[in-house]
Amino acid sequence: MKRIIYHILLPAFMPAIFFRVAFTPVDVLGCRTRGLLALMIALLSGLAALSAAVIGMKGKMRGDRDALWWMLSVLVLTIPVIAMIILA
Length: 88
Fold this sequence. Notes:
By secondary structure, this protein is mostly helical. Helix content is 84%, strand content 0%.
């Protein structure tokens, strides 16, 4: 249960925050602010995905069984990056 929380649920906050900002009406935040916030969240999520990928690959080289969980984190964290590319 602890692995699910750390590797699935906590990284899932990034896509949730990204889509919350992306689908906020323009009247609330303004177009530029909303876009910059979405870009910042996507960049942070991408950097977190890269770091999780490095940790997962190091673990895979060592034969660690937790490397698969890190790769699941990478998949969850890349959702905002892919959504940013699609929405742009």
